[in-house]
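Hi Prof. W.,

I finally got the Large ribosomal subunit protein uL4 prediction working! I wasn't sure whether to trim anything, so I left the full sequence exactly as given:
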Amino acid sequence: MEVKVLDINGKETGRSVQLADSVFAIEPNKHAIYLDVKQYLANQRQGTHKAKERAEVAGSTRKIKKQKGTGTARAGSAKSPVFKGGGTIFGPRPRSYSFKLNKALKRLARKSAFTIKAQESNLFVIEDITFDTPNTKNFINVLKALGLESKKSLFVLGESNKNVYLSSRNLKRASVVTSSELNTYGILNANSLVLTEGSVEGIVENLSK
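And this is what came out:
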């Protein structure tokens, strides 16, 4: 799969890159995508929720009324879940929502996500970006040149670049990651995926292990 390389002004450079069909042109596996996205979202949950059960609620354990003769149901402690202020029945407890997925399945999910972006023509390859200093205005100019200023976009760098990252940090619709930080959710959550020339080799290498 051959894709033309654009410069940061959105113009063609006259160069092109060959994207491996084994990564960018496979048969998408939607179930693998579902599992990988599900795991990513599960890992974002803190799992610190907690409700007090009857043994943990503060209050007296004295029997609140006699057992018989009241005409109502028998009742013991005021901490019983049937009373206001009592404990919670089967309330949430702190837990981890994470679960394990095989590496091969996660690689398949990312390949499927790349393929979907390529099929939708929402994948671009641009020359490597370098800024001398962090400058949000410069990054906005890049977005405008590519026609992405009003779209959610994900930029993938070959290696970490602090100035480029800081230039994009204040923008709600733009994110910058390295090829090693990519995940299926991030790829699919972006309207447009922008790869730098230097990131292509790293992506293929990471997904070919």
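The mean pLDDT is 93. Does that look reasonable to you?

Thanks,
D.
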